[in-house]
Amino acid sequence: MDMDDEEKLIEESETEQPSDGVEENGVTEQTAEEAVAEHDGKSKKKKGGKIALYILYGVVTIFVLVMILSFNDIGNIFGMLAHAEIGYVFAAIGLLLVYLGISPIALCILTKSRKNDISVKKTYVIGMTEHFFNGITPFATGGQPFQVYAFARSGVKPAESTGLLLMNFIIYQIVISAFSGLALIFYSRFATNALISVIAIVGFSVNFAVLACAVAIATSSHVRRFLQWCVGLLCKIKFIAKFLEPQLPKFNAYMEQVQIAFKDLLKKPGVFFSCLGVKAVSMAAYYAITFFVIRSLGIEIGIDQLFFVICGTAFAVTMVIFLPTPGSSGGVEFAFSVIFATIIGADQIETISYGGMLIWRLITYYLSMMISLAFYIGFEINCSRAKKRKLLLAEQENAVHAVVTEDLIEEASNDNGANNAEEEDAE
Asked: Global pTM?
């Protein structure tokens, strides 16, 4: 090694050596810490806003429940709940667990069929978070956007995950529309007055319209171009164009990729019908919860009435699907108490109807949200640990790089010293 080569090696080593903790990829340890601190600050502000929103939703729900129960003897209702047969209550909770446990399997099947680089376990957890975010947002619209975000954090492209979730949503809509259609068999028994009839017509119409719109968005190139035209029209507004126009090409590509992913799934009928079966079983379990709630209140109904009860529950849920409140709060309590009275018979006291509604709501809404929230917290903990492992690995790589660089410099210096000594001896 001559003098020029040694000097070049030292210069290159010094150039490659990260200054002030700079890693090979240009990210510094200090910058990472600052980024985490900045992220934590923003997260605290967002969490504060979310907590306020959740409190508002809780207050609205409690207010609605109090208003409904105030028209009856609250003491009698809670006295009746205290004497509910606990075995049937646990049976109802068991059906809820069956519904929650089976429901995400459809999303796992869809994701697996597309061979996405994400584990079935993580997909299942993401699927379980849907109930919490649907429960706290108007029109139950929060589940899918969060799932797209969660998939993106797990390495699945947003366009790909949107296609998967759109297919999952359409399968769900097909199943609940089928149950709703069966419920119409007993329409004359459920629609006991003009108000119920009007609400039911609006709710069922919205339900079928949502299904039609979802299919159109997923399959129709005309609808895709119309949406792209609408976004382009918004870009003509100056203050919107400033933010939206640069993203327009990405949006167009995103819509095309969503439809490609969805149409690819349509080419796999085995996957489609498997998911359809999973959703049908899960929703049947969900609608059957009402049967055991009724039995828990001491109302004698036979297993031959199970189909009627399932249809009644589907009718009650569908008729208020258009309400913008989180979890259809307010409307679903009213609808269910009316349908409950129809199922148990007019000769039963009214407090039983409201007591049954309260048990059903506590199990299907609040308990399911708590379970879903637990999965969301687990997902966040797992992501946080993965982020820490990534930062730790980056720090270790930085330390190794620094040691290797120091060794190279030391070796070059030693070679340089040895060469200088040989030259001096030669002189």
From this structure: 0.70
